[in-house]
Amino acid sequence: MSAILIGSEIVHYEVLGRGRPLIFLHGWVGSWRYWIPVMQATSISYRAYALDLWGFGDTAKKEALYQPEEQVKLIDAFLNQLGIGRIALIGHGLGAMVALMYAAHFPDAVDRVMAISHPIDGSMINNRLRSSQPASLADWLLERNPMTDPVRMDAARADPKALAIALDYLSTTTFPEIWNRSQTACLLIHGQNDPAILSPTVEQMMAMPSQVHAIGFEDSGHFPMLEESSKFNRLMVDFLALTSGESPKQLQLKEEWKRRVR
Amino acid sequence: MAKILIAEDEPDIRILVKFTLEFAGHQVVTVENGVEALETVPSVMPDLVLMDVRMPRMDGYEACIAIKKDPSTQHIPVVFLSAKGQEAEIRTGLEAGAVEYLLKPFAPDDLTERVNEILARYGKS
User: Fold this and answer.
1) Tens digits of per-residue pLDDT, B77-94?
2) Which of B82, B90, B125 to mutate to test the interface with A (most CBs of A within 10 A)?
3) How far is CA A34 from the centre of its chain?
4) What is the mean pLDDT of each run of 10 residues along chain A (262 residues)?
5) The complex's ipTM?
């Protein structure tokens, strides 16, 4: 794990693999750590970076930095400081919001966005996300098993204000408002059993522009990358393999390829 | 190929890092403490300094500050390699002028990739 200074504040990140750069952004609960299994899945073909956003994990906790625009500036400064060029962004919850905003602000810097568990509008957010402390959110959203331990460990270290400020922003902004400023290919992923964020309706999915595609994970809650990791990784690899600018609408969920054993 | 100076007092780590980076094609010079680092950097003029924090005679923080104060060596990027991950220690290292603070342990491949990235970032690869 590494630490750098951005402005005069510490930012923690991890990096794995070789190839085209990917940036993973964590959600409301946890930190960069829960992306490790996914980063390992991409490490043969991609250089995967995961960082802690302001207010989370080991990165600095300063309330003045928790506004979504500041999180977007963090991503920009991170990419500039590390000399990273055009990227694919994979964001979860809060990280999905930041990823979409970043792509809207800097469309030339982003090749594609995968947005997991992101609400289409504020009405789709369970109020419990707003009213609970980060540590108890981990208990609510996750089953207890070794895969979810990294999330739990880091959940209690988040500054609740960072969560609250982001949720306030989402209450007044809709996904189409963010998306109308961008033409970047986007794959929306939702766990259909997510207690925190409602999946988009059929009408909402029909109204999505051509560069946006939504896929639901039937057996997942808020963390499809942990709960159905094989399917998630396969879908992610397929999305990343699309030609630049190609619509993701052809993508479907598939089972992980398994070697036939005689 | 770049010229890299490693300042590390633990012989096993020093040898491992040296071997890893030489295997990656770099020229590596090693020293065992901060005083030796300050004596060696101006004559060797490495493209990168990898510095441990806790070393005898002079620690990595002091050595980094001195490297950054010297006009002839201040352009050389310094990276801390440390097992110490407390926020205060990381902040001290970065505010001493290091461009990055890497936490041990790290796999040899990971170290090589990060070193190559940092060298590219500073136009030294």
Assistant:
1) 999 999 878 889 999 999
2) B90
3) 11
4) 94 95 94 93 95 95 96 97 95 95 94 94 89 88 82 88 91 77 88 94 87 93 94 96 90 65 47
5) 0.90
Say whether A83 and B121 touch across the interface (CB within 8 A).
yes
Rounded to 5 degrees, what angle do the CA atoms A16, A85, A212 make? Answer: 90
A16/B110 Cβ within 8 A: yes
Q: How many domains does chain B have?
A: 1
> What counts of helices (H) and strands (E) characterise chain A?
11, 8
Q: How would DSSP label each residue in A164-222?
A: HHHHHHHHT--HHHHHTT---EEEEEEETT-SSBPPPPHHHHHTS-TTEEEEEETT-SS
- Say how far apart CA B84 and CA B7 lie, in whole Å: 16
Among B95, B100, B121, beta carbon nearest to A2: B100
The class of domain A2-242 in CATH terms is alpha beta
User: Which CATH number goes with the domain that contains B9?
Assistant: 3.40.50.2300
- Element spanning A112, H or E: strand A110-116
Q: Which residue has the tokens 């290091």?
A: B98
Which domain range does residue B97 map to?
3-121
Q: Give Cβ neighbours of residue A201 (< 8 Å, ≥ 6 apart).
A: none
Cα distance between residue A32 and residue A25, in whole Å: 7
